[in-house]
Specification:
By secondary structure, the chain is mainly alpha-helical. The chain has one domain. It is built from eight helices and two strands, in the order αββααααααα. The chain is globular, with a radius of gyration of 20 Å.
């Protein structure tokens, strides 16, 4: 009988230990808005944060992170300035659709800053410049849909791995 075809017994305890180590080393995302902290480390936790809603103040946080006026971020998300002003004063929460879009934009910005070695200014310039791999359109203009955000993330992945986008 050929020994190469023999299987080894599955070691449950070792598998559990490895999973715990992976979970401890997972990147946790954290967001501080209007004195509230939102954290998640996996997609299911992100879904819960989205369902609970995120304060309108996140739009200002995103605006500062990409060095753009709040009005530009409002246009991407599709929220009128007057609605934003009222909801922010009332400390209202974004609905789940807008929360998901804004949370994905926030994650994309964090990822982009990581790709550019924590150099915010470089990322801010990149996101506003026309990009050949996006048909000559600046990445910022793709942030209004989840599919667009994914395309921008693909561009950032290519940059991270040396295939410039």
């Amino acid at each position: 009988m050929d020994n190469s075809l023999q299987t080894t017994r599955f070691k449950t305890s070792e598998s559990i230990k490895k999973a715990r180590i992976r979970n401890e080393n997972m990147r946790k995302s954290s967001l501080n808005v209007e004195g509230k902290t939102f954290t998640w480390s996996n997609r299911l936790e992100r879904v819960q944060v989205i369902r609970n809603g995120i304060p309108y103040g996140i739009l200002e946080v995103i605006s500062k992170k990409i060095n753009s006026p709040v009005k530009k971020v409002l246009n991407i998300v599709g929220i009128p300035q007057t609605t934003y002003n009222k909801k922010k004063v009332d400390q209202s929460l974004l609905d789940s659709r807008d929360s998901e879009l804004v949370l994905r934009i926030f994650e994309l910005i964090d990822f982009g800053v990581d790709v550019f070695d924590q150099k915010d200014k470089k990322f801010q310039r990149w996101i506003d410049k026309p990009n050949l791999s996006l048909g000559g359109v600046p990445p910022f203009q793709f942030l209004d849909t989840i599919s667009g955000i994914n395309e921008v993330k693909f561009c950032l992945n290519r940059i991270e791995y040396g295939n410039f986008a």
